[in-house]
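re: the backbone from monday

yeah here it is again, tokenized this time
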């Protein structure tokens, strides 16, 4: 029987992490192991993890979500686990989420994903999923061609052997998208969202059209920089990636001029 390890990346959200770990412990088909990658949390996370005998954990400097999942997936692969079930610490899987995923594993070794649902109303999709608004609208058992890593994303070790791991240099904001396109576009590996496998996640409230604080919104740097890495994995040629990136930069500059209210020139 192939073994499953749940890999959770965490930073300064100990209470939410505990909620996630409890949901993993109470799965109808329990994961064979749980690994938490603690990205240098400064809250009570390290102390809490030391008190969890059934949870493997690695504490490292804060290297972002990219570095966290790079460490976690590498550790799981080197330790012989077949399925690597990845998630952030601010969401948690429904009780039968893993059981439902494994029913659709198949010989082709697709990239399998939970349906990512708003943890407040337990119905709405957090991100666009084939234009469905709620999980109640979905009639098919599997939504083909779409997934939202890393929110209950399950990767087989054969995919890691072919594709590698997330690029730690991307740090955050786009690292998961680059990896997703590397798997599905560059290596042509099928991707599926299993409708009966639910992962609860906070609603996505942020939009880059909102006025952001120039001095404190350092994440925006990674959003803009990492877009080129995403397009390199998404586009069929490097020339197309360069053209698409230039179009993105022009469009993003337009968004700054139209929607931002403060520090427009600095942001440009």
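seq for it, each position gets an aa:
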């Amino acid at each position: 029987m192939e073994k499953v390890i749940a890999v959770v990346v965490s930073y300064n959200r100990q209470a939410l992490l505990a909620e996630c770990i409890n949901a993993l412990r109470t799965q109808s088909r329990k994961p064979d192991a749980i690994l938490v990658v603690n990205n240098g949390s400064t809250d009570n996370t390290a102390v809490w993890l030391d008190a969890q005998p059934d949870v493997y954990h690695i504490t490292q400097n804060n290297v972002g979500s990219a570095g966290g999942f790079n460490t976690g997936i590498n550790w799981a692969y080197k330790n012989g686990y077949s399925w690597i079930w990845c998630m952030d610490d601010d969401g948690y899987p429904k009780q039968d989420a893993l059981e439902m995923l494994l029913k659709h594993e198949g010989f082709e070794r697709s990239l399998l994903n939970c349906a990512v649902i708003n943890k407040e109303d337990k119905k709405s999709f957090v991100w666009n999923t084939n234009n469905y608004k709620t999980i109640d609208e979905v009639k098919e058992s599997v939504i083909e061609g779409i997934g939202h890593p890393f929110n209950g994303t399950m990767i087989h070790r054969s995919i890691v052997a072919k594709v590698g791991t997330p690029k730690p240099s991307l740090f955050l904001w786009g690292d998961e998208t680059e990896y997703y396109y590397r798997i599905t576009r560059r290596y042509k590996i099928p991707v599926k969202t299993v409708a009966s496998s639910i992962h609860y996640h906070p609603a996505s409230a942020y939009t880059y059209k909102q006025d952001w604080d120039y001095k404190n919104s350092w994440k925006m740097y990674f959003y803009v920089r990492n877009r080129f890495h995403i397009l390199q994995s998404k586009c069929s040629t490097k020339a197309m990636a360069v053209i698409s990136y230039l179009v993105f930069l022009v469009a993003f500059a337009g968004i700054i001029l139209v929607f931002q209210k403060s520090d427009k020139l600095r942001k440009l």
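The first strand starts at residue 4 and ends at 10. The two ends are 54 Å apart (CA to CA).
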